[in-house]
Fold this protein.
Amino acid sequence: MEAYKAKSIDEVIRLLSQFEGKGKVIAGGTDLIIDIRNKKVKPEALIDISSIDELKTIEDLGSFIRIGAAATFTDLVESSLLDENLYGLKKAAREVGSPQIRNRGTIGGNIANGSPAADSVPPLLCLDSTLILRSIKGEREISLRDYYEKGFKIGEDEIISAIQFKKPEGRQILSFAKLGLRKALAISRLSIATLLEIGGDNRIKTIRIASGSLGRHPLREYKVEEFLIGKDFNEEVINEAVLVLKEAMEERLKGRATLPYKQRAVERVFKDAIYGGLERLKVVEA
Amino acid sequence: MKKISLNVNGKDHILEVEEDMRLIDLLREKLGLTGVKEGCSEGECGACTVIMDGEVVNSCLVMAFQAEGSSILTIEGLGDEENIHPIQQAFIDVGAVQCGYCTPGMILAAKALLDKNPNPTEEEIREAISGNLCRCTGYNKIVQAIDRAKEVLR
């Protein structure tokens, strides 16, 4: 195995092209190093991107935010751009692993490794995020939803260079809640992110819901979104939405031993996300 | 083999490392810094914690070549019998060390916390050591030790 500590995106994509699919990008290494040691992955070359500044910046582009793929969870937690209405993404980052893992693990790695429990992904799905991919052929964008739901692939010669999304508008609030078996280092048993906006008439004006660990990959809960949109926001409606969510889970996870447990647990996690978001909105607007 | 340069405990080194070598192996085997402990080898236990450019990392989850150009602090660089660091002294005074295997990682996690936040709350202390497992003491004495160290260091 060869090893390269790349200094720029250009160097990374040149190496990826040179190794024709046998080169593997390493950032935080918190998953990959374990896979290499267990011989699950046998790259011919490791290309380290963990110290490329242009891949680590979190940028305010006016109506968009762009997060470099090698930004660590600690970078996200410390970014002032992710306060206020985007706090759900920061909350998800804060609950990843442990301080040691957050200092190394990156948002791009969370996506590229395809874990069903990747904590940062449900909030990014609620934001309708776009992945920006680079290769020697140039730059292209794919939606994060297509990546998960339509199985769009990142090419062997491509690198995720950034994740980009539109800032929430008006009174939209992004929220996140998770159930782990212990406080630190818990792999999510279940996580929910929501982007909610309640209009002046108390009707649900915006609702996007994404879940982690409720399927083979993080996903949007469209049936629940369709149920909620336009409805009057009250406890009864939220309780009915929980039933819709449980039904959707039933279809997806039928036969899994964890289904009864997850169906009981999901109610609390979903409500924590919804009501926790509204609590946060009060703070933001105060 | 790959040649890398890095600073460990204040001393510059230029070393030949294997491409698949981890930082923990470099520290223990090339430099003899056996205060860096290997526990789980997958980032769960924190026994291999070192401070890399001011931040705690699991040295079992960093490749040696990735550490090129960085500054590493291990427990050996923090203090020794002649020059004991206040955090180490507090661990001894409070009785926060039993088998000792988690201790280097715990102390470095405490150091990284106190460098950034000289007056942490108990909750912040517990959060800072949440990536370090101890199977002996039950954490309370460790938390007390860090709380005592913060008073001495302030």
Remarks:
- Chain B is about 35% helix and 15% strand.
- Residues 47 and 105 of chain B are 5 Å apart (CA to CA).
